[in-house]
Amino acid sequence: MIYSSITGTGGYLPERIMENAELEQMVNTSDEWIKSRTGVVKRHIAAEGETTCDLAEHAAHKAMKAASASSDDIDLIIVATTTPDLIFPSTACLLQHRLGIRGTAAFDVQAVCTGFIYALAIADKFIKTGSTKKALVVGAETLSRIIDWTDRDTCVLFGDGAGAVILEASETPGIVSTFLHADGQYKDLLKVPSGISTDCTKIKDGNAFIQMQGNEVFKVAVNTLGRIVDETLSANNLKKKDIDWLVPHQANTRIISATAKKLDMPMDKVILTVDQHGNTSAASVPLALDVAIRDGRIQRGDKLLLEAFGGGFTWGSALIDY
Ligand code: UT7
């Protein structure tokens, strides 16, 4: 049996930091409201001209260095993003070229905040079938480009960034299980209501923005994440206490605490970066993973539960023996 195992991680955040105080000058909000309702203290914002692929490239280089992987070794590239540089070619193809790689499969995955879990699950399946030996899996976003900076309901929540992992074929797990789900009946609760074949003038004019019915999304997110925790534990015959670290999508500290409670897990076993990064959508899980591996909290042999929930709705989990 072939398994896949994470051999290196990397993360990158744009230089510019936006504190809550700056948002107080832009919309009718307060540092106190943002911190207490979301947990966000600051977020990073891409510079003018800095693209999703730029962020992805930095994160990819760091992950490759950590895994001692060279460009020649990579035989699959998947980029999870909702904010690609171009309509096409895919950001994965742009990244492939930047890294000096030719001929490998390279494609984007669009599952909004669950994008990295989807990409990781796909790469895991490529490796398990024997068609891939070493995959570069990236979650990268420049969400600041689709934020209405006059809408206090959304502009306080999001940030830009990228996280990457190298996933390699291995004789032992690795990735123990992945579960992916979606339910399009919730399409209107969280969306950018324009695209190439709908209202494309908004895209051309730079007026395509995230809209969210936050309260409704919150309720479904808490229930759904609770269910995916149960699904993952029961499919693997595990008890709550078997999980060493929860690495959740970083949308809101209150949603994360509810999931931790479901696992009877103290918050010091939960990787929390939403305070420093905001919600970076597909980048949030790999960024959180990278932070906790680099600061030494996550150690080889630990059992990790990665989970995410986002627009679509989409949701998923990855159970990993690190
Ligand atoms: O990553 C993908 C998935 N996304 C999520 O999971 C996000 C889920 N939703 C959330 O995290 C929360 O719903 C929010 C953080 C977006 C909002 O928190 P909430 O506790 O659900 O607030 P609310 O929408 O119920 O609004 C409470 C009050 C309202 O005022 P009234 O009607 O009570 O007078 C809002 O108008 O807070 C007001 N409000 C704000 N006040 C200051 C909403 N946004 C702001 C703001 N600053 N930025």
CATH class descriptor name of the largest domain: Alpha Beta
Count of alpha and pi helical runs: 11
Compute the CA-based radius of gyration.
18 Å
Number of E strands: 13
The coarse overall form would be globular
Give the H and E element order.
Answer: EEHHEHEHEHEHEEEHEHEHHHEE
Q: Regarding quaternary structure, how should these chains be classified? A: single chain
Task: Give your account of this protein's structure.
By secondary structure, this protein is of the alpha/beta class. It has 2 domains: 3-172, Thiolase/Chalcone synthase (Peroxisomal Thiolase, Chain A, domain 1), CATH 3.40.47.10; 177-321, Thiolase/Chalcone synthase (Peroxisomal Thiolase, Chain A, domain 1). Helices cover 33% and strands 24% of the residues. It has helices spanning 20-24, 31-38, 52-66, 91-98, 115-128, 152-155, 200-204, 214-235, 253-262, 274-277, 284-294; strands spanning 3-12, 16-19, 42-45, 76-80, 105-109, 134-141, 161-170, 175-182, 190-191, 211-212, 245-248, 303-310, 314-321. It has a 5-stranded mixed β-sheet, with helices on both faces. It has a 4-stranded mixed β-sheet with strand order 8-13-12-11, with helices on both faces. A two-stranded antiparallel ribbon has the order 2-3. Helix 3 crosses helix 4 (91-98) and helix 8 (214-235) runs parallel beside helix 9. It is globular and about 55 Å long. Bound molecules: oxa(dethia)-CoA. The site of oxa(dethia)-CoA (UT7) has 19 residues, from helix 2, helix 6, helix 8 and strand 12. Oxa(dethia)-CoA binds next to helix 2, helix 6, helix 8 and strand 12.
